[in-house]
Amino acid sequence: MTDLTVKISSLTLKNPIMPASGTFGSELAPLLDINRLGAIVPKSITLSERGGNQTPRVCETDGGMINSIGIQSKGIEHYIANILPSYQDFEPPLIASISGESIEEFENLAERLDREPSVAALELNISCPNLRDHGQAFGMSADTTYQLLGKVRAVTTKPLIAKLTPNVTRIQDIAEAAERGGADALTVANTFLAMAIDTESRKPRIGNVMGGLSGAAVKPLIVRFIYQVHQATNLPIIGSGGVMNGQDAIEMILAGASAVQVGTATFIQPNAMNTITDEITDYLVRHHISAVKDLIGQVNLD
Amino acid sequence: MKTFNAKIMTNQSVSTRYWQITLDVSAIDMPVQPGQFFHIQCGDAWKNPLRRPLSVYHYNRELRTLEFLYLVKGTGTQQLTLKKKGDMLNLIGPLGQGFTLPEQGALLLVARGVGVATLHALAREARSENKRVHVIISARTPEDLLTVETLTHIGATVHTVTDEEETSSVESVRSLSEKLIREEGISAIYTCGSRRLSKLVQELADEYQLKGELATEAHMACGIGDCYACACTIRKGNQLKTVRVCTDGPVFPISQAVLQ
């Protein structure tokens, strides 16, 4: 028997595979066995209702896509009344991704969700490139990251996962700041601020001009970030960016990830997360490895 | 809704910019409504990672074949033209909200460009229930007029207008539509493919108290309601609401359409 369990702080996941926020919903239930996921991550929630950005909100690029959804959201009360209950019959623990326009909003959201027993952990989306002007995000500043984590830490005992932005000069600084502020784990990373232009019309291919790049094209960059962050902190890492198959997931685990998020691959094949989990098992069997956790950070540098 | 593979029976060009593909879906047992769509993997997952939403042109329940009439618009649909007879295609569907037929009376369908593909499925459904169907097809050139023969063959009355013949102005289509509404007992009006014509259909539905529906299109990522890429604005009562084309649409009551 292969052991796929991994730990993210106090949370034990039955396998390392979970959705990236914003790419998953209960609509997938007919196409994907949700009970086989390591965790459930519903779309980021904001304090109040948001309409999202102008269209087109997605465009295709080589090996990926740019999105600028802008977190269309019905607000925290709707989330608690409707979204959380819609997952209550599924087995995997639920990680609530929260997004705020100020540190105070993060605090309010965390305080509100701290009272919800169905929320196993909070992922702090301090890195969405689509909320503020020109892709600015809290996670671009180590000081802001430290302050934000500290404020949220004070209002909840639930595990806190800081989702870092790749749009920084030195990600280790942000990771250390998050750790000092009280983060229990890190998601590495959100999408890359990107742009594409339609040469026929000379118009940006995203309504909001810029958006976040995801998909297979970003994977080598994310593997590098995971490796760097793993060197810099002791926190468990959730790798996120461009995982298309089990091999990709193993690569991130070897670089230092304890778990892996899957997003764009789900748009290509809705059951991608189930397939990736099977491929991880195949890898372990093929290499006579009994537990996937034994591979974390085991890149061979000799 | 499911993810499945289907074998390609034919895939050929029907005019300079349009292709038609027929799939064997005999392994699939599913109800398919006109106006619904399938989310299709068109080519290589590196060059074209995103699927393309194509609305149903014709679903033949007896032969279990599924047909799409598609405009070759970008790299995804270009890749689709390279698929050969016998190749497999991966689809998710059927997806979205389809058209609803009127209880009684005749239907008027107003199509522009590839919009006729979507309305063709509706025309067939209405004809199978012996409802009278009039179709106004608008296109750039007479060569771009699609499915005229097929629609005539199934017993729909087809009226064509083109830019080249200078018969496709909104004013011309309005007077033709009004004549049909007055003389042919039209109780419902449908449109797809043009913002200008959608606006006209919205006005006509309001003025003549007709049931009206609009089929929309959008860039999509997931196609099943998770990602919110395909947002559009609709009017519900006095409020504007942002909804998803893929799951709340692609067919909306024409009264809800917000058209600039």
From TrEMBL, chain A:
Residues 4-284 form the Dihydroorotate dehydrogenase catalytic domain. Belongs to the dihydroorotate dehydrogenase family. Type 1 subfamily. CDD domains: DHOD_1B_like (cd04740). Gene3D superfamilies: Aldolase class I. It is found in: Cytoplasm. InterPro entries: Aldolase_TIM, DHO_dehydrogenase, DHOD_1B, Dihydroorotate_DH_1, Dihydroorotate_DH_1_2, Dihydroorotate_DH_cat, Dihydroorotate_DH_CS, Dihydroorotate_DH_I. Keywords: Cytoplasm, Flavoprotein, FMN, Oxidoreductase, Pyrimidine biosynthesis. Binds 1 FMN per subunit. Homodimer. Pathway: Pyrimidine metabolism; UMP biosynthesis via de novo pathway; orotate from (S)-dihydroorotate (NAD(+) route): step 1/1. One of its GO terms (molecular function) is dihydroorotate dehydrogenase (fumarate) activity. Coiled coil: none annotated. This is Dihydroorotate dehydrogenase. It holds the Pfam family DHO_dh. It catalyses: (S)-dihydroorotate + fumarate = orotate + succinate; (S)-dihydroorotate + A = orotate + AH2; (S)-dihydroorotate + NAD(+) = orotate + NADH + H(+). GO terms for cellular component: cytoplasm.
Automatic annotation (TrEMBL), chain B:
Keywords: 2Fe-2S, Electron transport, FAD, Flavoprotein, Iron, Iron-sulfur, Metal-binding, Transport. PROSITE patterns: FAD_FR (PS51384). The keyword Ribosomal protein does not apply. It comes from Sporolactobacillus laevolacticus DSM 442. One of its GO terms (biological process) is pyrimidine nucleotide biosynthetic process. SUPFAM superfamilies: Ferredoxin reductase-like, C-terminal NADP-linked domain, Riboflavin synthase domain-like. GO terms for molecular function: 2 iron, 2 sulfur cluster binding; flavin adenine dinucleotide binding; metal ion binding; oxidoreductase activity. Pfam families: DHODB_Fe-S_bind (PF10418). Residues 1-101 form the FAD-binding FR-type domain. Gene3D superfamilies: Dihydroorotate dehydrogenase, electron transfer subunit, Nucleotide-binding domain of ferredoxin-NADP reductase (FNR) module, Translation factors. FAD binds at residues 52-55, 76-77. This is Oxidoreductase. Belongs to the PyrK family. InterPro entries: Cyt_c3_hydrogenase_gsu, Dihydroorotate_DH_ele_sf, Dihydroorotate_DH_Fe-S-bd, FAD-bd_FR_type, FNR_nucleotide-bd, PyrK_electron_transfer, Riboflavin_synthase-like_b-brl. Binds 1 [2Fe-2S] cluster per subunit. Binds 1 FAD per subunit. Its cofactor is [2Fe-2S] cluster; FAD. [2Fe-2S] cluster binds at residues 222, 227, 230, 246.
